[in-house]
Design goal:
CATH superfamily of the largest domain: NADP-dependent oxidoreductase domain
Distance between the termini: 29 Å
CATH class of the largest domain: Alpha Beta
Radius of gyration: 21 Å
Structural class: alpha/beta
Number of domains: 2
Number of strands: 10
Strand content: 5-15%
Helix content: 25-40%
Order of helices and strands: EEEHEHEHEHEHEHEHHEHHHH
CATH topology of the largest domain: TIM Barrel
Length: 346
């Protein structure tokens, strides 16, 4: 694995981030401690240094395992964890983005991780109640104390992220350098607002569910175009998504590469700022995913995957790309203008 600068910072992170939502069996589908150790060691042996967890993953077990695994080598890793989700039921202040929950959650995470600082601390999800300036000032205070080094935000509308970073910039506070979102061949809606915003503001993207919850591994479409189970509970199991998954399987046969690696490479080749989160339950799954770094999709293959999974960007994007609108906006000279290499432009 090679390394990338994380957003608008000097922090170096590995090309993949190890997701640890599967560390622990409390939720009924994770791995035991022995297998988690193997996964952690295999990721490290491959050059990985970026670990992602959260205070609520497997009810705290994920952070505890990571704390045990770090041992005496803590400083070589970039550890990221999150706050926001509730830690006590029926207590309104044990959840949310506000300062009280942030401080209490951070202290608890530090204890479980057996460390005195977090490299990247994430707002896990936006609560639409806490003022943006309260969140940004509180995070900056934690950076000032040295308990966190960098900040990121997850599962939040683009306009909030943009406004938050603008407020922080005007006040010389720490700005978000990372954005965590769901993004894959079957979930491309972030292309409407989130990805252009992140590119323009030089925010690194750590996409989760890059395999579409397993749909893009081919396990549901090896022999036909229907999943082996369809109980209506998983919103990803749609007819359109299964068509995309089937197409990925067909491409895998043509180029002799696993469907999972095709799906991962489509995401990671989208932008320099992409640092996919790889969540696995076995060490073999991890090794298979890491092998995708040894090759790349061709431009033709990327364009074909774009086409079979395309979405409508909607207003105003599609409207502004209409020929008659461009003619009005640019006076018929759009094709004659040399475009600057500005992030966020299309």
């Amino acid at each position: 694995m090679r390394y990338k600068l994380f957003g608008r910072s000097g922090l170096r992170v590995s090309e993949f981030c190890l997701g640890t939502m599967t560390f622990g069996k409390e939720w009924g589908w994770g791995a035991d401690k022995a297998e988690c150790r193997k996964i952690f060691d295999a990721f490290t042996d491959a050059g990985g240094n970026f670990i992602d967890t959260a205070n609520r993953y497997t009810e705290g077990t994920s952070e505890k395992y990571i704390g045990d695994f770090l041992s005496k080598t803590r400083d070589k890793y970039v550890i990221s964890t999150k706050y926001t989700l509730n830690t006590r039921k029926n207590d309104p202040n044990s959840a949310g983005n506000h300062r009280k929950n942030m401080i209490l959650s951070l202290e608890a995470s530090l204890n479980r991780l057996k460390t005195d600082y977090i490299d990247v601390y994430w707002v896990h999800a936006w609560d639409f109640l806490t003022p943006i300036d309260e969140v940004m000032r509180a995070l900056d205070d934690m950076v000032t104390t040295g308990k966190i080094l960098y900040i990121g935000i997850s599962d939040t509308p683009a306009w909030i992220v943009a406004r938050a970073n603008t407020i922080a910039e005007l006040n010389s506070w720490s700005r978000f350098v990372g954005l965590q979102i769901e993004f894959s061949l079957i979930q491309r809606s972030p292309e409407r607002e989130l990805l252009p915003m992140a590119e323009h503001m030089n925010i690194s993207i750590t996409p989760w569910a890059v395999l579409g919850g397993g749909i893009l591994t081919g396990k549901y479409s090896e022999d036909n175009n229907k999943p082996k189970r369809f109980d209506g509970n998983d919103q990803r199991l749609t007819i359109q998504n299964m068509k995309i998954a089937h197409s990925v399987v067909e491409l895998s046969k043509e180029i002799d590469k696993p469907p999972s690696q095709i799906a991962i490479n489509w995401v990671r080749q989208k932008s320099y700022n992409m640092v996919p989160i790889i969540g696995v339950r076995t060490v073999d799954q991890l090794k298979n995913n890491v092998e995708s770094l040894q090759w790349e999709l061709t431009q033709e293959e990327l364009e074909w995957l774009d086409e079979i999974s395309s979405i409508e960007l909607g207003f105003p994007h599609d409207y502004l790309e209409k020929e008659f609108v461009r003619d009005l906006v640019y006076g018929g000279t759009y094709d004659d203008i040399i475009k600057p290499p500005c992030k966020g432009t299309r």
